[in-house]
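Before the break, one more example. Copy the sequence into your notebook; we will annotate it together after we see the structure.
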Amino acid sequence: MAFTKEIVDFSNLDDFQIQKKLNKFNIPLSIEEAKKIQYDMLGRAPSLVELVLFSIQGSEHCSYKSSRKYLKQFTTESPDVVLGAKEDAGVVSIATDNEGNRWCIVMSHESHNHPSQIVPYEGAATGVGGNVRDVLCMGAKVIACTDSFRFGEIKNNKTKWIHGGVVSGIAGYGNPLGVPNIGGDLYYHEGYNENCLVTLVTLGIVREDRIIHSYAPKNADGYDLILVGKPTDNSGFGGASFASLELEEEKKEQNKGAVQEPNAFLERHLLKSTYALFEILRREKLIDKVGFKDLGAGGVACASVELAETSGYGAEVWMEKIHISLKNLHPSIYLCSETQERFMWVSPKE
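Here is what the structure looks like once it is written out:
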């Protein structure tokens, strides 16, 4: 599968022409970002697939490019913080048992604002699913969910529609998983009429020595990347970029395709089978020989890069081996689709 077949060359184009070309391919990059990719980062004209990947990985949702300086002001280190804001979820020690083992709460926090404004049920449901997978990926047992909502004026019919869909979506995903929703808060204000806030939190529990990390272990040369879960499709493609942009009413129908499609019953099976695998890894003392990551924004590209690069490795990804549910998908979808209910393991070949 050719990675650089469709070339998008910005040479000899003025800013207006560059923007026109970006719009043609629906690439949410700025003109300056497009120039930097071609002239500074690659030193050549990028492929369409590469532009899609840069737009997703460079989005606010993935890279926090505008909010990173503020996030750095938070305190993320203390004697009880086992893992700060570095991997799929944070880990905080809360108790020590009689054998001296520290037990930890694992917490994932995420907003699903834009998706919930456009398609409330699916937007909220997939937010729960992603949060649950983030906690699971740390080797934890998922024990609870909670949420925080900000909706528009309570008398508006649109507000009632969004409110009903969001609440139903969270229940419709969490209940089949058997994960209780233990609380939350809710406010209405006209300032949220056109952009609701749907914040989701998932909690898990794990013993400190049983934490699985979201990166390749030491001495992982030749290890395999294994994709697990739902076959890849085009649902949610470009969701990270969409979630980072300002909502536009005239693009509402177009943006619906960027919202992922949830399957809570499949995720329930994945949870149960993963718990069983955790037990095998613990029994065989293999916890520190694997890495485990949820496929969220950026799909296969993001997960494979983060599993490998964080430990100083590169990776070869054979996209033709990715299991799919639709024919004739564009290579960028194989690489960057945000299809839900998927994980990636890094594991020794044996």
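The chain has a mean pLDDT of 88. Strands lie at 81-83, 90-96, 102-111, 141-151, 181-188, 197-207, 224-229, 291-294, 342-347. Try to locate both features in your own notes.
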